Amino acid sequence: SQKIEQNSEALNIQEGKTATLTCNYTNYSPAYLQWYRQDPGRGPVFLLLIRENEKEKRKERLKVTFDTTLKQSLFHITASQPADSATYLCALNNAGNMLTFGGGTRLMVKP
Amino acid sequence: GAVVSQHPSRVICKSGTSVKIECRSLDFQATTMFWYRQFPKQSLMLMATSNEGSKATYEQGVEKDKFLINHASLTLSTLTVTSAHPEDSSFYICSASGGGAKDMGTDTQYFGPGTRLTVL
């Protein structure tokens, strides 16, 4: 069966460090993969999209990698700040623009 | 750009009543809108996909007669929870696509802020 797995345990890091979140999937062949940020009681906010033929994508302090052999995406936040504390969701597209979401990982950045 | 609004943000209703939630794309035309439900500490679960002017496509296990979706224009979709019961209490989130973000070459979904429904 198809699965998207994100670490359900919260990730606690110190301000200034790099946060790395993992998204693994099985039985999918996504055309692309997206990362979203969700704050409590709010809708997800789009961060980055990476296509199947791209290895890495960057946006300011954010970096996403996509390894279709390992079926894994890594999401990095460099120079993390307390304001980065949120839940981060990965989502896969198959055909078209339908998304399937992972369970999300909660990031806590301590000052 | 790509702002999506939802109304109301929070609603409390009695069991048996119907509740309508509106989703609007404010600065782009949304050819497709999606409705999700999210239970506490769980991920988003897609309920249905609607294309403007067409009937919605519902995911397996979602009752179309209970969750009525209308997408009458390119900027507005509504979800009506009919005869709501306490188990329908959840966080309902819509998203819209159709803008075709330039840097991606494909549609991405832009999410509304969500509606917290509590059925007493």
What does this structure look like?
- The complex is a heterodimer of chains A (111) and B (120).
- Chain A is mainly beta and 111 residues long.
- Chain A is built from no helices and 11 strands.
- Chain A has strands at residues 3-6, 11-14, 19-26, 32-38, 45-51, 56-59, 62-67, 72-77, 86-93, 99-101, 105-110.
- In chain A, the strands form 2 sheets. In chain A, strands 2, 4, 5, 9, 10 and 11 form a 6-stranded mixed β-sheet that branches. A 5-stranded antiparallel β-sheet of chain A has the order 1-3-8-7-6, with no helix packed on it.
- The N and C termini of chain A lie far apart (41 Å).
- The model of chain A has no long low-confidence stretch (mean pLDDT 92).
- Chain B is mostly beta strands and 120 residues long.
- Chain B has strands spanning 4-7, 10-13, 19-25, 32-38, 44-51, 57-58, 67-73, 76-81, 90-97, 110-111, 115-119.
- Chain B is globular, with a radius of gyration of 14 Å.
- Chain A binds chain B through residues 31-32, 34, 36, 41-46, 49, 89, 97-104, and chain B through 4, 6, 32, 34, 42-46, 49, 91, 93, 95, 97, 104, 106-114, 116.
Give a concise summary:
The complex is a heterodimer of chains A (111) and B (120). Chain A is globular.
Write the layout of secondary structure elements.
The complex is a heterodimer of chains A (111) and B (120).
Chain A: E1 3-6, E2 11-14, E3 19-26, E4 32-38, E5 45-51, E6 56-59, E7 62-67, E8 72-77, E9 86-93, E10 99-101, E11 105-110
Parallel strand pairs in A: 2-11
Antiparallel strand pairs in A: 1-3, 3-8, 4-5, 4-9, 6-7, 7-8, 9-10, 9-11
Chain B: E1 4-7, E2 10-13, E3 19-25, E4 32-38, E5 44-51, E6 57-58, E7 67-73, E8 76-81, E9 90-97, E10 110-111, E11 115-119
Parallel strand pairs in B: 2-11
Antiparallel strand pairs in B: 1-3, 3-8, 4-5, 4-9, 5-6, 7-8, 9-10, 9-11
